Amino acid sequence: MASNLFIFNSKIDMKRKEIVHYVIVLVMFLFFLKLVEKTLDYFIRFDYNKKPGCAASGTINADVLIQGASRVAFGMNTSILHKKTGLSCYNLGLPNSYIDESLALLEIYLKNNKKPKYLFLEVSANYFDFNQTVFHSFLFVPYMEDELITSIVRRNDFLLYTLHYFPLFKYSIYNGESISQFCSGLSRRLKNTSAYDSAFGYKPMTCEWDGKFDAFKEKNPNGISYKLDESKMKSFIQYMDLIKKYNIKLFLYEAPILKEALPYFKNHDSIANVITKIASEYNVTYVSFANLPMNSNRLYFVNSMHTCATGSDTFTEIFYDTYSDWFRKLKPGF
Amino acid sequence: MFFVPVYILILAFTIVIDYVAGILIENADSKKKKLYLIVSLISNIGILAVFKYYNFFVDNINDVFVLSGVNFQFAFLKILLPIGLSFHTFQAMSYTIEVYRGNQKAERHFGIYALYVMFFPQLVAGPIERPQNMLHQFHIKHKFDFDLVRSGLNLMFWGFFKKMVIADRLTLFVDPVFANPVKYGGLPILFGMVFFAFQIYCDFSGYSDIAIGAARIMGFKLMTNFNFPFISKNITEFWRKWHISLSTWFNDYLFNPLVIKTRNWHKLGVCFALISTLLISGLWHGAGWNFVIFGGLHGIAMTYEFLTKKIRKSISKALPDWIYGNISIVLTFMFACFAWIFFRAKSLKMAWAYIKRIPGLSTFKSYHSFNLATMYDNNISYIDLSIAIIGIFALFIGEYLLRKKPYIDEHFKVIISNLKPVFYFIALVFFILTAVFNDGKQFIYFQF
């Protein structure tokens, strides 16, 4: 009887030991997974080929920041602006993005740099278009400890949002991009290179007319109407509120559009009116450069929506002239 | 290939027919036995014929009508192919045939028979089980066995690795080239051909591992479906190692009976049986001439091997083992890759377009440098290529180790058992960072 009891007790002891063993292994597993996740977070932030990495570097600290999508990234020569104003300027444009990504990017920027004195946001009709659905979630994976970014990711990529609660799994769905960013970040970290490139974030499009507009015309002889996305408009309001919170002087503008393309964007004016209305509610100026004389010349453009390098330089000069009084306020006598 | 809820009735129909047929066959005299078997087989094959092959045959007959000037066209059926139809139909057929042959007692418990046909791990893509292996397992009470759970999970993990890390990554290199071969030059065409071999192996054997692992967790033993066919020295050996449950099915229920029927034809009978079996096996995979040719090519290869057995044996004796063996493996692999072009291409026309682009057969578009951006235009990165190649290496190592010792745990007794958690940790991290989670494809064999 006593020996049976001993065997029974020793069996329970064995089971308990086994369970404790598995619990310890599991906890260690989770700990090490988190460690790998943090390592990836750390190095990906050094990937200055991507704008979030530049923004997170904390070395930009620009007086003048310009945000928007590709029409900014390829269309605003910040080095010209820097030369003309004497102010530090940075192009934070993110190609093929919409307002949600600009909002997330601005959050990263503001958390890591001194706030800019002026912020220019390029707002085109397609920026709020319902059919614009490409959200580059992988760019924001390392920054998901931030509440605002997590909420933006949640509404754009619910799977990533869910997975970010499990250690390392936030890197699972975009692992190809993440590994590439990690390699780039690691290399940058080891070489200790700066995030502040000589082009101030501007990436000129040196190619010639790409013919996309001609194809578009053929496909849509009667033009198209953009459909305003409610969710994106809410993000826009959120963006304006964030600017207000940080007390930054904001300017809204619309980049040049090829003149012959304008009739094909049927509700261009009505969308511009919506933006003007929101801008006036926040006491923000909105300037449209959709009707510049340069817009009649295809030589300044790669396609209907994007200026080529020469076009971007010309536009930047016009942009400077338009806001020169404001720039002089920051640096009198320049 | 599609799950339509009402299609569950097809499954229910075959289950009822075969369940009743099994009991009737067992109780009937030899004349009626055959009749019941034929009724059961016609019901099963009839369903396959309607859902899988009707439109293919109608399409061909209509073409013949057009060519011969007959002004009549049969209408096509607007139906979808039910998911896993070919698999569960074959499994059901093996039951009635085995009862007819007296190798298996008819199952009296309807629920157990239904479970035999619908056992979820292998319902949609096999392995195609035999009643002798499965039915008795449903009568045994299965107790929780930690070792089986662990080893089942290990196998499932290996299956997911093959599917999500290797197969789905290789898809990036295979899909665009097969979709439009005319657009691509030499290297992508070669990559597409070779990578598809690994893709389909990892895809299908990965599914089999997941199915076998899931069944093992519950205490069930399913038959082995793959035995790393890439190191086969001839096509006959290849088919002994590839989709074993299907090839043994054809061997038992088609090839052997045909050989017996044509035994008076001597060698010609075997050749006839080989070609017929492989042609039908090709057609089993899909209703299209490209699948017929895929099967036909393998049939011709096996016939060649059958007829040249003696000559090849004498050559093998004249050469050192390692030379003959390795050359055989490479040639077999190349042949399999070539035949898979017909399997993977959407149609015969596309297969031919692909073959014409193979370097040597047509223009070889050379590249001045190895640049993925100029080779592909769908954002394939060097990271994708690296993962694919590392994955293939891992596949060879993994399959080699599993062939030596089928349970992953056993390898740690050889090395250091304390390293086990480290191995699992590294494997998990590697899996998370390399598997395709975002744009994964469904299993290729689900379409059959």
What does this structure look like?
The complex is a heterodimer of chains A (334) and B (448). Chain A is α/β, with parallel strands linked by helices and 334 residues long. Chain A has a single domain (60-175, 194-329), classed as 3-Layer(aba) Sandwich (Rossmann fold), CATH 3.40.50. Helix content of chain A is 51%, strand content 7%. Chain A has 12 helices and 5 strands. Chain A has helices at residues 2-44, 51-57, 70-73, 78-85, 99-112, 147-156, 158-163, 175-191, 212-219, 230-246, 268-281, 309-330; strands spanning 64-67, 89-91, 118-122, 249-254, 285-288. Chain A has a 5-stranded parallel β-sheet with strand order 2-1-3-4-5. In chain A, helix 11 (268-281) links the parallel strand 4 (249-254) and strand 5. In chain A, helix 1 packs across helix 8. Chain A is elongated and about 100 Å long. The mean pLDDT of chain A is 86. With 448 residues, chain B is an all-alpha fold. Chain B has 3 domains: 5-139, no CATH class; 146-226 and 359-447, no CATH class; 229-344, no CATH class. Chain B is built from 19 helices and no strands. In chain B, helix 2 (30-67) runs antiparallel to helix 3, helix 10 packs antiparallel against helix 11 (267-285) and helix 12 packs antiparallel against helix 14 (321-344). The relative contact order of chain B is 0.11.
